[in-house]
Structure formats: structure tokens, C-alpha cells
Design goal:
The protein is α+β, with helices and mostly antiparallel strands and about 400 residues long. Helix content is about 20%, strand content about 30%. The chain is built from 6 helices and 24 strands. The strands form 5 sheets. Strands 13-14-15-16-20-17-21 form a 7-stranded mixed β-sheet, with helices on one face. Strands 12-11-10-22-23-24 form a 6-stranded mixed β-sheet, with helices on one face. The structure holds fe (ii) ion (FE2) (2 copies). The site of one fe (ii) ion has 7 residues, from loops.
Length: about 400
């Protein structure tokens, strides 16, 4: 870079660094913790067919936490109790709640395709969450549905209403894939307090399987608070910090979650292992910064070179992304070209669930694109007479804004 360019870049960096780094001032949280457990969130850190991970928080004076669970059709005498691990999340800048106790209970040994009821709490104080339900994944081929949304980031209230509608209309969806930028400054706990409060009644019923956005890394070091808040599978690449990239199997589908903030080349060998070593009928990928942009000039060349070439080679069916704050679904793509059928290529989706909107530009790869609409996506996989995937994007009023199907012959 020429000296002038370097000095200009340095000046700009110095001027904007407090905002880029998210250097926060003392502030309060609108949703401080109490002795009563809240912010209950399901996820998977192990096999979805035999495990469930439950996380929640309390005020720091509560040091013990347990999860109680049983099969939903079994008598109360069968309740199993599992102690949780606790970590203290401290943030001295949050003046009305500088610390919370964050609990994680990893339930193992469950039966596949089975519904359970559970609650979390503190036995000593006899304070408990409401009983809620979760269901384990089937072992093999079976119909299921899942949800996808991205970039909550701004407009959490509006998003909260939308996902409750999503929950009401899809009570049996197996889990939520989330596409990054959950909050605007990832290491500001007050923003996560607000997010989990808005998700109450949704995240305690549908496991959340997230990817890391660039905003999760703001106010760092890196996505520290995100990694503390979500216990995820530790099966990612050896040279990438655990839980930043991971994969999981749900029924006859493979989900590979990549970290768009870590160089794509570093994750390529592991990605190839995941895709080449699976017998899954359906293959999906999730990451934040999109390979195909909805906006002008935000395509990600390294992602196309390092990851999309593998999606082509091993035929990934659909890729879920965020970051661009507008809606985009591409035509099926292979080798960066539009192809005629889903059997020959991969659909790339960018979605936005928040209220921050960017421009939308039509590209030769754009099948459906529009700006200024918050959406959530529902993906149904049916297994009658072969396999059929039905993808639909809904706006906050429940209107279908995009839909596409993929069919596969019976094996
Ligand atoms: Fe974003
Ligand atoms: Fe982003």
C-alpha cells in the first residue's frame, strides 16, 4: 500500500475504533437475573438422537442448578435429575447486574425419536422453571422440519413477536438454525439478556444451533461471550477453537456449521472430511458471511473458492447465510454458474430477521430477492415416496414470500 493509503487507513481505524471494538460505557441491563431461573435455551453438544443440552441463568447468589427430566409419557416417579455446571459471567460495566450464574446441563443416554419433559432450577431454594418439552432426533430416515433465521441484531422486540408466531405455527419443528449477528455487540451481555428474554417460550422448546457472525466478535476477545452462552459440539477442525465450527447429524441429514470469521482455507480439509465421509441423504451448510451476496460488492471470494467448490463436489443441497440484511435465494448453483435443477447444484439463501436493512441488488444468480422484509424460514423434509424438501420464507405477518422444493427419488 502506498504511504498515503496507509496513513489514511490508520487515521480511519483510529477514528472509528471505539465503535468497531464496541468499547462500551457503563450501562444497565433491562433484564437483570433473579433467583428464579430464566433464559432457558436448548442446544446440542452431542448426538441429537441421544442427548440434549440445557442452559439457563440465575442471579449469582444461586450457585447450584439441576435439570429434572422424564419421558413425556412416563410417570413422575421416573424423573431423572442431573446437576449442571455453572460459570459466572462477569461484566463490570453492567451496573445493575455485573454478574450472572450461567448453567449448562448435558443430558446423555436418551432414547431416539422420543419426547421428554424437563425443568431446571435450584433445589435448595425450590425455584424452578416451568416444565417444557424437547424431543430427540430419529436415528435414521424420517420426516422432520427445522427453522432458519439470521441477523436479529437490531429490532429484538419485533423479532421476538415474529419468532413466537413462528413457534405457534411450527410447534413441532425440530430445531432452529441461526445465521449469526444475534446481537449488535457480541460481548455486551445486556444485549443477550434482551435477546433471550424475547426468545422465552421458543428457545426452551427448539434447540438452537448457531453460527458466529462478525458482530458476535465485537468487544472481544473474539466471540467469547457467545462461546460461553452456547455449549455446542466440539467436533470441529483441530486447529480452530472448539465450538466455532461443528457438525451434527439429524436423522438422515448432515448439517455442517462453519465459522465465517476464521479463514475458509483453514476449515476446508475438515469440511471435506465431513462431506466425503457421510451417507446422509440431505446435506446442509450454515455460515454467516455469504458466498453469493444480495448486496452489491459483498461476495466472498475465499468462501467460493474454499467451500463452494466442495459443496459442488459433494452436492450440498442448501446453504444458509446472513450478514447482508436483505433476502436472497439463488438458483441452483454449480461452479458459480446457474444450473437447471437442484439435482445439479446448490441453493444459497441469505435471510434477515432483524430490522436493519441493506440494499438488494439483482444478480444473475438471484432467483428471488427483496429488501426491507424480515423473514424466518421453515424447511420441511418429507419421506413419503422418496424424499421431498419444501422450503418456505415467511414474513412477520405469516405470508409466504418465497418457496421452492427439492425432490429425490427413493433409495
Ligand atoms: Fe448483520
Ligand atoms: Fe454480519
Amino acid at each position: 500500500m502506498r504511504p498515503f493509503g496507509f496513513l489514511l487507513a490508520l487515521l480511519v481505524t483510529l477514528l472509528i475504533s471505539p465503535f468497531v471494538l464496541g468499547e462500551a460505557q457503563p450501562h444497565t441491563t433491562e433484564f437483570p437475573p433473579s433467583a428464579h431461573p430464566d433464559d432457558v435455551c436448548l442446544t446440542w453438544s452431542g448426538d441429537p438422537s441421544t442427548t440434549e443440552t440445557v442452559q439457563w441463568r440465575t442471579a449469582p447468589e444461586i450457585s447450584g442448578g439441576v435439570v429434572q427430566y422424564r419421558k413425556s409419557d412416563a410417570p413422575e416417579t421416573t424423573i431423572v435429575e442431573l446437576p449442571a455446571e455453572a460459570i459466572r459471567l462477569e461484566d463490570a460495566l453492567i451496573t445493575n447486574a455485573p454478574a450472572v450464574e450461567h448453567f449448562t446441563a448435558k443430558i446423555t443416554g436418551l432414547e431416539p425419536a422420543t419426547a421428554y419433559v424437563y425443568r431446571v432450577g435450584d433445589k435448595q431454594g425450590n425455584t424452578w422453571s416451568n416444565w417444557a418439552t424437547f424431543a430427540t432426533a430419529p436415528k435414521g430416515r424420517a420426516p422432520f422440519s427445522f427453522l432458519f433465521f439470521a441477523d436479529v441484531q437490531n429490532g429484538v422486540d419485533v423479532w421476538g413477536k415474529m419468532i413466537h408466531q413462528m413457534q405457534d405455527r411450527n410447534p413441532n419443528a425440530a430445531f432452529c438454525l441461526t445465521g449469526g449477528d444475534f446481537v449488535n455487540q457480541g460481548n455486551n451481555r445486556a444485549l443477550w439478556d434482551e435477546l433471550f428474554h424475547a426468545a422465552d417460550g421458543v428457545f426452551d422448546r427448539h434447540p438452537v444451533l448457531p453460527t458466529i457472525g462478525n458482530h458476535e466478535c465485537i468487544g472481544g476477545p473474539g466471540p467469547k461471550l457467545y462461546l460461553d452462552l452456547f455449549a455446542l459440539p466440539e467436533n470441529g477442525p483441530d486447529d480452530v477453537a472448539k465450538e466455532r465450527a461443528y457438525s451434527f447429524r439429524y436423522g438422515h441429514a448432515l448439517f455442517v456449521v462453519l465459522d465465517g470469521n476464521t479463514p475458509p482455507a483453514q476449515q476446508r480439509p475438515w469440511l471435506e472430511q465431513q462431506l466425503s465421509g457421510t451417507d446422509a441423504v440431505w446435506k446442509f451448510a450454515l455460515f454467516h458471511q455469504p458466498a453469493y451476496s444480495s448486496d452489491p460488492g459483498r461476495d466472498n471470494r475465499a468462501v467460493r473458492d474454499q467451500w463452494c467448490t466442495l459443496f459442488d463436489k459433494y452436492h450440498v443441497d442448501m446453504v444458509f447465510q446472513g450478514h447482508d440484511h436483505a433476502y436472497l435465494r439463488t438458483y441452483p448453483m454449480n461452479a458459480e454458474k446457474v444450473v437447471a435443477t437442484p439435482a445439479e447444484g446448490t441453493f444459497y439463501v441469505v435471510a434477515d430477521a432483524g430490522t436493519k436493512y441493506y440494499k438488494q441488488e439483482q444478480h444473475d444468480y438471484t432467483a428471488v430477492g427483496f429488501p426491507n422484509v424480515s423473514t424466518y424460514q421453515v424447511i420441511n423434509i418429507d419421506t413419503q415416496d422418496g424424499d421431498k424438501l419444501s422450503y418456505r420464507a415467511y414474513d412477520a405477518d405469516g405470508n409466504i414470500r418465497d418457496e421452492v422444493t427439492i425432490t429425490k427419488p427413493a433409495k
